[in-house]
Prior knowledge:
312 residues, Rossmann fold, 54% helix, alpha/beta, elongated, eight-stranded mixed sheet
Amino acid sequence: MLSRIVFVLGKGGVGRTTxxxxxxxxLAERGERVLVLEWTVAEAIAPWFGLAPAxxxxxxxxxxxxxxxxxxxxxxxxxxxxxLHLGAxxxxxxxxxxxxxxxxxxxxxxxxxxxxxxxxxxxxAEAEAGLAFDRIVVDTPxxxxxxxxxxxxxxxxxxxxxxxxxxxxxxxxxxxxDPAWTSALVVTxxxxxxxxxxxxxxxxxxxxxxxAPLAALVNRSVARLGFEGAAPAWLPxxxxxxxxxxxxGLETVHAELCGRSxxxxxxxxxxxGRTQLGTFSLDEQLVTMGATSPREVAYAxxxxxxxxxxxx
Length: 312
């Protein structure tokens, strides 16, 4: 069964947000209440559905699908005021200029509070704030920052923290260790830089979680179009009918497609057996559906994700 929280990881620009939205849609379409939680300067998903960018409070963008954006200042207020009921301490100490600067500068605190918010959303949020979600999809920041969320509990636990920080670490670590509670999904492109980063990310995520990612999703794949190895049979005949400039352009495009196909082939071979579901392509729906907007892409990808992950 798919875990309560799914972290969507990957290099910047590979399509994490689109995949997160598509996964949320596919789960919502089977009757689940889903939250896609972003951590970004400008929340991007709600505008795809014709709405203003979402803030820290979940906004319903489609039946069963809500989105929200994480902010450190609001996470601090919610933790100390709503959860711990230490309103005076928050107003006079935590929310003071010097303490706020220290918290913002301290490595790992923002990430810990982010994970703490996920813990709260899947345990106490319904009773304390009336927020009930069957699944949370985390649209993580780009690879470095996103991957650091997975190893944060073990890194900070090694420091031997106690008190409130120690309690927070323990429950977050418990959440991250539980495969029914958390899992990861990796998104990549059939490009050299993205492939190199993915080949580093998958073993790192596996070590941090203690289990393999669910899958590696290859976005904008061209392997199924037959651009691997020898040139397609139709290419020479087409080239013969083109002007020299057009022929040169076609050759450039063909070389690019062959390079992307080679890259995907190498990626699939390198990741074989290193994810729970292997690798699969996300491009087929894009090619056949001709999606032109992020929202259309998300709807087009939803059946693909549901087929591969719906029963995981």
